[in-house]
């Protein structure tokens, strides 16, 4: 991993328009092989969808607490995540004891009913808010399409010899999270974060930000580089599962959020991952495997049970 002082920008026009992606794949490998983060521009997602999802997020967070609490996060990881109910206890990047200072709504794939054989399957929980579900589903559909295109580009970038793993993304695990970060007090303790230092555990994160800022990415030397909002761009980063699938060629980079602006911050991360049944292993063509194969669903269960109150086993007397 190379030291860096800014986040690279990738114009993905050839990917969206069906053009020659040879040079883009090389640029992707450089960006995600050295930094793990990039701004993605000319991505083809309708700006109206982006505007609409932020309006939906603000409308949701403006609801009375009692209305949001009616759809509190369930065991299938859908619904309202109140402030002070998630902590990055698995972080090896900082001593994290205080919960993240954010509240959010979480949507995943819409399943008519839970399948006992598929971890986290089930229907979403929707608030009583006109147009909210339609807006979320339209945005998630567009982001899923972009996520699949970026996964295809990632496989080209690492020179994977077999692209059959893309079948696991035809019924992907998706997470649309509508986040609100309150302003942190000026004299906040050093270990109080909007989002504590962490690496994302999935494959790709596609983040839309408002104009407030607060996202920071860690360099190899331990410095923190701002990833300020860029109009019309998504901040896209690689998570731990794609790092493993690429056999270490693509980097999962630590990042955090500190909202010291004095303003409310809204962001919309979309996490694009394979079906939970996938065995995560180094892909053919990436060299001798550096990691043991793991089951994605089993890995997820451990992560969620450690970090979220809703997934923890009830305490016994």
Which key terms come to mind for this protein?
317 residues, alpha+beta, Jelly Rolls, four-stranded antiparallel beta sheet, 20% strand, eight-stranded mixed beta sheet
Entry summary:
With 317 residues, this protein is α+β, with helices and mostly antiparallel strands. The protein has helices at 13-17, 22-34, 47-61, 65-69, 132-157, 240-245, 296-307; strands spanning 9-11, 37-41, 79-81, 103-108, 173-181, 195-198, 204-209, 215-218, 224-226, 234-238, 255-257, 265-273, 279-280, 294-295. The chain has one domain (9-311): B-lactam Antibiotic, Isopenicillin N Synthase, Chain (Jelly Rolls, Sandwich).
Return the CATH topology: Jelly Rolls
Shape: globular
Protein structure class: alpha+beta
CATH class: Mainly Beta
Contiguous uncertain segments of 5+ residues: none
Q: What is the rounded Rg? A: 19 Å
How does the major sheet shape up? 8 strands, mixed
Q: Average pLDDT value?
A: 92
Helix content: 25-40%
Known CATH architecture: Sandwich
CATH superfamily: B-lactam Antibiotic, Isopenicillin N Synthase, Chain
State the distance separating the first and last CA atoms.
Answer: 48 Å
**Total domain modules:** 1
Order of SSEs, N→C? EHHEHHEEHEEEEEEHEEEEH
Cross-sheet strand order for the largest sheet:
1-2-10-7-12-5-4-3
């Amino acid at each position: 991993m190379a030291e860096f002082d800014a986040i690279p920008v990738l114009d993905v026009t050839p990917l969206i328009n069906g053009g020659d992606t040879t040079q883009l794949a090389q640029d992707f490998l450089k960006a995600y092989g050295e930094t793990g983060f990039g701004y993605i521009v000319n991505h083809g997602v309708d700006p109206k969808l982006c505007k609409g999802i932020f309006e939906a997020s603000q409308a949701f967070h403006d609801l009375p607490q009692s209305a949001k609490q009616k759809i509190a996060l369930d065991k299938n990881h859908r619904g309202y995540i109140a402030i002070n109910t998630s902590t990055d206890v698995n972080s090896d990047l900082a001593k994290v004891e205080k919960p993240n200072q954010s509240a959010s709504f979480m949507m995943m794939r819409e399943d008519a009913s839970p399948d006992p054989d598929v971890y986290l399957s089930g229907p979403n929980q929707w608030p009583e808010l006109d147009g909210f579900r339609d807006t979320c589903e339209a945005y998630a559909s567009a982001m899923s399409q972009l996520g699949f295109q970026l996964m295809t580009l990632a496989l080209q970038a690492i020179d994977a010899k077999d692209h059959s793993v893309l079948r696991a993304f035809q019924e992907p695990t998706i997470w649309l999270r509508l986040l609100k970060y309150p302003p942190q007090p000026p004299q906040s303790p050093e270990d109080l974060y909007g989002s504590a230092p962490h690496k994302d555990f999935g494959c790709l994160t596609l983040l839309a930000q408002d104009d407030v800022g607060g996202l920071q990415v860690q360099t190899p030397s331990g410095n923190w580089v701002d990833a300020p909002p860029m109009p019309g761009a998504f901040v896209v980063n690689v998570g731990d599962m794609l790092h493993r699938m690429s056999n270490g060629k693509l980097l999962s980079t630590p990042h955090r959020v500190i909202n010291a602006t004095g303003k409310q911050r809204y962001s919309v991360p979309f996490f694009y991952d394979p079906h939970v049944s996938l065995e995560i292993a180094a892909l053919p063509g990436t060299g001798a495997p550096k990691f043991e194969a793991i089951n994605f669903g089993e890995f997820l269960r451990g992560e969620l049970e450690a970090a979220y109150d809703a997934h923890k086993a009830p305490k016994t007397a």
